Every structure is written in C-alpha cells, then in structure tokens.
Amino acid sequence: MKESFELLDAAQAMANIRTFEQTLLNLFKKGLLSGSTHTSIGQEANAVGVAAAINQDDVVVSNHRCHGHFLAHDGNMTSLFAEIMGLEGGVCGGWGGSQHLCIPRRFYSNGIQGGILPLGLGLALAMKMNEDHRLVTVFIGDGTLGQGAVYECLNMAAIYKVPLLVVIEDNGIAQSTPTKNTLAGSIVDRILAFGLRCESLEYPDARQVFEIASELGSSVRKGKPAVLVLRSARLGPHSKGDDTRPLKEIEELKKLDPLMRMIQQLPAGAEHRIFNQAEQLIEGALLQAQKYSEAKYIPIQKTKSLNVHSHPVADDPDSIAIARSLSGISFLEQINRALHDVMAENHSTLLLGEDLLDPYGGAFKASSGLSSKYPGRVIATPISEESFVGLCGGLALEGKKPIVEIMFGDFLAVAANQILNHLALYRGMYNRQVDVPVVIRAPMGGGRGYGPTHSQSLEKIFAGQSGLRVFAPSFMHPYKYLLEMALNSPDPTLMVENKISYPLRPEVDAEGLISDLFCHYHIEEDDIVLTLSPSAFEDDDFNIVCYGGMVPLAINAAQQLMLDHEISIRIIAPSCIHPLNAENLADKLVVDKPLIAIEEAMSAFGFAAELIAQLAEKDISPKVFRRIGAENCVIGAGRNLEKFILPSVETIISAVLELKGE
Amino acid sequence: MELIEIKLPQSNVNDTTARIIEWRVADGEKVSIGQVILVIETSKSAEEIESPASGYIKILSQVDAEISVGETLAVIGASPEALSDIAIKSPEARPPEVAIKATADAKELAASHNIDLGVLKVRGIITKRHVENFIASIPKSSPIPPKTSGGRNVPLTKVQLASMEAVSSSTRETATTYVLGEADITNCMAALDSLIDDEGLLLSITDVAIHFCSRTLRNFPRLNARLAVDMVVEIPEINIGVAVEINGDLHFVVIPHADSLPVSIIGETRQESVFLLLKGQPLKNQQPSTFGVTVLDQPGITYQIPIVFPGHAAITGFGPIRESFTINSDGFPEKRKLIGICVSYDHRFINGTLAANFLSSLIKRLEEGTLN
Ligand SMILES: Cc1ncc(C[n+]2csc(CCOP(=O)(O)OP(=O)(O)O)c2C)c(N)n1
After folding, report:
1. pLDDT tens for residues A144-172?
2. What ipTM does this complex have?
3. Total-model pTM
4. Do A522 and A307 form a contact (C-beta atoms < 8 A)?
5. Which chain A residues touch B127 with a CB distance below 8 Å?
6. Is residue B146 one of the residues assigned to a domain?
C-alpha cells in the first residue's frame, strides 16, 4: 500500500486511462481495430483508487472491462495497445485480445462473467497456504451478480478465510439492461449474508476509493475477505456504439464524473496539462506498439514415442515388469496408492473435492487415509463444482498441483464452464506464460444401477477441447505413471476413471501374461498404450480399440472368442483419448483385419468416430470398421435396462461373430 | 405369502463380494421382520443384515462362504412346508480351477490323438495350431520299414512319444547337474515296518521317499519352483510327481500337497493311481507336479541320476536299499541299511550349495526316521 495519496498523480492516471480508451474507440471507428473492447470511461476512479491502495506485487483479477484495471496496476500502455491490435509484442502476444490479459502472478482477466471469481479465490487460497503476504483483488460488475459462481466463491472465501477483496463496480447497467430489472433485494445484504465485511460508496472519487480500499486491504491481508461496492457511472457505451440509453440520462451521469470532480480540486490549468501529457504518452505508446509485427501462428509439435517398438511384441521386459507391478492390485488401490505417493513426493500437491475427509475418504474411497496424513492439504469443499474446480486454476497459477475429485463424472457438466472456458484456455490465451497442472478425477460410467444422472460417460463433451487432455486409463494401466504425467504437464488433465473397474484386479501370471493374453505397454510421451493378444501378436484376426471400462469387457470377450472359436483378438487400449493419436495406434493394429472400436457412451460424436476419421484422413483406415457403444437412450437404473443399454461382453462377441460370418 | 429371497446387498460401492461371518438364526427357524439374522464381512466392516419379512427361514449359504452382490443367501416363506423344495447350494458348487487353458478345437484335436495337453508347453491359451505343431513334432514311423536282418520294428506308444518329448525338452532347455549322498535308513525302515505290521498298510520305500522329500522341501522353497522368463516362481503347494513305469511306459503320478499328508495316505494315493494305470484308465484330477521323486531298486546298483522334469527345479533319485556294516559309537561293527540318493537340479537357477544343503537336510531326516 502506498503511504500517501497524490491527487494530481491519481488524476493523471485516470486521464491516461480515459485517453487510452478514447483512442481505442477512435481506432475502431477508423476500422483499424477488430474484435471487441469495453471502456471504463467514467469508472477510472475505481481502478486508480484500488491500485493505489494495494501493492505492486498483489494480484488483480479483472473482467471484460479490464483496461483501466490493467493500466492502473501495471501501466504498460504499449503492450496493451499491441495486445488489442493482435500484435506479437502484446501482453499475451496477441492471443488474448482486449479481455484476456495476463501478467503472470500479478494480473489476469477473462471475458466470462463471473468466471474470474473461482480464479481469484484459488489464487487467494494459495496465498494463504503459502503464507504469502499478497492479496487478491477481483473486479466484477453489478450485472454479474446474476452468476451463481459469485456466491459459491463468496461462501468459500468466508469459510476458507482467504485474502480476497472483491470490488463490485455497480454502474447500474449490464450491457443494455438496467440492473434494477435483474437484481432482487440489495447487493450489500447479499454479501452480509455470508458474514463477510462489506463497504459501499456512492460515486466516490479516487481518494475515497483509495482510503476505504486501504483499510479493507489490511484486514483482507490478515485472512478476512471483504467486498467493496462502488456505485459508479458508465459514461461510454457498453462496448462501442451500442449505448441505448437516452442522451439526457448520460448527460446527467456525466455530472458524476469523478475525473472532472477531481480536476476541479486541482489548480487552474491542470485539466489542459493533464490531458496534454496523457495524449503525448498515448501517442508515443501507440507508435511504439505499431512497430510490432502481427502475431504469427506456430503449430505445436507432434509428440514422439519413447518406445523402442512401435509394434507390439511379446515378452518385452519393461512391459512384463509393468504388468507384474499391477498384479492383484485393484484399480482403486492403485489410485489410492498413487495419490498417497504424489502427496508424499511433492508438497505442492493438494486434493480437493466433496466428502474427501477421513473416515469417509471420498464417495469411492479413493482418498482414504489422505486427510489424516496430510491434514492441511486435503480440502473438503461445499457442493459447488464450478467454483471448486475453477479455484484449482488459481491454485495452479500460484505453483500448486491440485487434484480435484468430481464425485460422479456426470457432475463435470456443472463445472464445464471452468474446465472448458477457463482451465483449458489459460495457457493458450495467456500466450503460454502460465502452467495449469490441474488434475480432475472423475469416476465415470454405468453398471451400478445409479440411474441416468450418475451413470453417464461424458468424456466426449470434454475430449476435443484444445488445451485440455483427457486420460481414461483402464485398471491395467499404471495409474501412478499417468497421474505423474498429468501433474507434470503444463495443461490440465481430465482423468476419467471407470467406476465399475474400481474393484478389478489384473490377473497377471509369472510370465507376465494378463488374463492369458500377451501384453505390451507402449510408453509414449503423453500416453501409455496397452496392447493385448492371445497369439503373442503373431496371428490376430480382429482389432479392438477401446479404453477405460471397456478394456475388461474386451479382455473377457477375447478370452471367450479364443477358447470357443479360435478367433484371436488384438486389444489396443490407449489411456489418452484426447488428443487422440490415431496414427500411433494404427502402428499397433493387425493390418487388413477388421477394427472394432468400443466406448461406453453412445457412439455418436465419440471416440470411435474420431479414431476412424483420423485413420481415414491418413488413408490407413481398415476395410471393415464397426462401432460399439450404448443405445441412444438414458441409462436406466434397472439391472436389466443397464444390461441392454450398455455395451457388454455379449455385444462384443456377437459383433465379432457377425463379422466373421458365424 | 410368496417366497422372499434375501440377497447380498451392495453396502460398499467397491465391494462385489462379502463373506458370511455368522448366522444368528438356525435353518428353519421362525424369524420376524427387522430381526438381525446374519452378519457379513465386506472389505470395510462387518455388517448386520435384518430380515425383510416375518416367516420361516431356509438358509442357502453357509458361514465362511464368499458370496457375490445380488446372490441369494436365504429364503423366507410362510410355513416350513413352503420351503421344502428349495435346494441348498453346496459349498463346492464352483467348478475346480483348470490349470491348462485350451480352445475347444485344441481340446478336440488333442483328445482325438490321445494327447495330454499338460505335456504341451504353451504360454497362454493352447490353440489347435499348438496341438498340430506338437503332433508334427512327434516322429512318425516311416512308411517303409528300414531293412533289418531279423530284427523287428517296435512302434512307440503314445505315452512313450509324450515322455520322449518331455525328456528331450529337458535336455534342450535345462542345465541338469547333481549332487550324490548316502543315508542310513535303518531307523526309518524299522518305523515303516512297524506301520506295515500294526496297521496292515502296504507301503514302500517310494512312499517314504515322497514323505521325507516333501517335508524337507518346505524349508527349500526355491527347489519347489519353476523358472518364468526372468524370475523364479516359488510354488506354495508341494505336489510330488513320482515316476512310475508300467509296461515300458513312463507315467508321472502326482501326490498333491504331499507335505501335509501322512505316509499312509501318500501310499494309498499312489497305489490308487498305479492301479488305475495298470487297468489302462485315465488318472483322476491330475494336478501339475512341482517336484520329482524316482526310485530304482534293482540290486547291485548304487545310484541313479535322474533328469529334471521340464517345469521343475529339481528331482531326487533313490537307489536300492543295501545292507552294510558300519562301526557304531561303541566301536562295534553293526549291520545297517543304506540308500544312495541323488539330487538333480536345474543349475540355471539353483546353486550347488543349495542342492547340497537340501540333500544333507533330507539325509538327516531320513536317518532320524520319524514317520507320521
Ligand atoms: C457468462 C457471460 N454471459 C454474458 C456475457 C456477455 N456480456 C459481456 S459484458 C456483459 C454485461 C456485464 O455487466 P456487468 O457485470 O454489470 O459489468 P459492466 O459491463 O457493467 O461493467 C455481458 C452480458 C459474458 N461475457 N459472459
């Protein structure tokens, strides 16, 4: 916090912001800018007052209307201009644009209303855990109070006692909608309901904001989160040329302009000097920014295989060693041990989720024993999937490695906004300046009779999103290896775990055969592909590509088809289903033999579709291809319904026999 | 009232089975709704199960049984008569584990050629192709008999062909080495004689050999083992395979869990099998052997050096019992019964010291001669 407040400095800072944003609007008018921009004309006092009250190294998290917050906290106009113009020298190299700015560990903004609350909460939780002196300020608008995540986070901030200051800029309007039409009750009452401290000011100037923010800041830093409501006037359009308010109303609001009110307190001639200086500054910055070239797209390199063999072979010693290490250990035990290991090995690793604490240890007991062993590092959350997944992003941006459990994979949809629009995008939109090593564990699938909302396999909703990796290991994949891969990755990983595989134990004989099948584990840079064959990979008649919970079914089918019909099935089971490296899987297929791809969800827009599309594009698709998936209906709870709806050993066997013409 | 089935509930999301610890009611007893009737154990805890109805109970699964979720544990009916037709599951309802996995085609082909699938050394599932290859590897008698001057052509029997394959695979694949020793079995034979006299049992030195070898093996797990790619698999069960020659055919008779059987049962089991072989009938429930024993008792010989059977770590070969004078502790010559013993072992994974320690420990036991 700055010791004193200089009116002149504050007025200059506000004039700089205003001139900057007016320049932006002019550039748009001239057609020199594309995309969107949201100016804070009339609200600059909030940004400047808060920035003066906090420290340089504190973190500011902002929304779509973020230029003022950015300039007040950092001041670099050139890189902001360059960013908005999509140039290489931009804050985010032109990837983020106007509403996605990042200075690692100091400033983040995002254009999804309300989505920044979980980020801010996570950052603040990391500060608290690290005993860091910094605080986190999140700016949101009054219209965003319609967003549920705001309340989830205010609730958690109060419970976890984190250094979080939420500033609500209440300009009475959201885009074109007067907030009075959308907000019931009072803002302050809503905040007070969480037992949080809440202060509010009516059209304050920068000094008033500074004073109250300074005071709140010192208690926030001590772990008392607070909310500051600042009534303000939006004098410009929502974005550009989209103001539907009557001119008269705007003229009235202009009388409340804090910048003009502050200039009036300064000696005569100050206005001229201040704006002159601002114009010079902005002109210089713009010229400087225009020297940068346009952001260039550089494609990401393809991953390599770390394996000596790209084709499976029997008796590969490393594969036998992996198989033996898994022998007789249930999938759940594997997961629990892996969690224990990664918690012991790295103190930054954290666990979050519902009902994780001992003696319960999570709905499926995967976290059993962990909260007793690492009391401060296992965090029990309220039923707020969006926010507790989102806050993991904040934790990760401060160097933590959070592993978050979604009790049932179906509930991922509740957290989808944070997964798809936040965690998955941070790295790309912030121009690879940040790493997001978050692991989201999701017990998925049916077969337990839990009914339609607790039995789905929703991974395909997430597979296909750039920046997000989807792992779906089977009970025969070395889970710990994959978990470590995920935690060491800069991208977030969705770890899909088939819940009926939890009690399954690989049957590995002394010679490394799994359930009488020869195995090969191909260790790739970002995948482990398991291949299985009864014929030692010499003489297989069919290819089955599948993952997760379909692997034990395929194994069962392969055994029966061999014993009863002498049909030899080669199973190819990747653990990474997105990004899917089909070319790599193709290396493991028996050529010229039919390929059946199996997934537990219905096949439409799924794993098999992606697989065959990639193979076809490379002209390496098999002559005969079939998909096996669930029926197109909800997953009924009744045992018999599930049996009919979900893929089974019998469906696989009959598909093979039908192709064989038997 | 209809019959009400009591099924094993899914109490813990990850358990697929549970064990019955205790029935709190007797079979046929009258029970009332809500009464605790049994206690089960899941991976997490013990759990009491209440009766869902009032009536008479028929218990279907016994204490200690492993049951699966959804399996019926008991049935409740309005009267004892209503339950009379319900059959109780026997605890041995599960089919015995089959060690050899073969396809339907492979089994059929093997049966038609009278081939014991156990002699095929296949990893994984045995297919028709494996059996065909095995058949092809058996030398055929050539269509034109070689010219002989008065000799005769004697075709080999199927058993002989199979043991030929076993013996040549042993020679090809193992590194058989051996240690020799001699045991004074005077006390042992006296104990055996009294067993034969008192209980009228028909026992031989072979049974004594199996008895002592199996017990000594308990302390030498590495000799009751097999080699798997790059590691030694020590086998918990001690199943002694004893070589039996019948009409020129060499058979292996297996005494499962020999280390826990009294010598009388060892003898009985062995003789039963020999009897079946003599009658030309197949052996029942033959389990894979884990260690070999062979006895040759023709007078005049002192030792035999057997080869290690494929899939074993070692074998002991006994010679005939011979009498000899030794000087006793008082300095007087004494007539004693001695036997020559050879331990052949696969030197690829068994060292001489270990084999020698085993032999010496076996000799000590034989000399003590305690039979049970
Ligand atoms: C989740 C989401 N919904 C809608 C929008 C479109 N949008 C952008 S800004 C905005 C209005 C936000 O109003 P408020 O929170 O009051 O902030 P202000 O614009 O007034 O600063 C809307 C609806 C969005 N960006 N994100």
Report:
1. 999 999 999 999 999 999 999 999 999 99
2. 0.76
3. 0.79
4. yes
5. 534-535, 562, 566
6. no
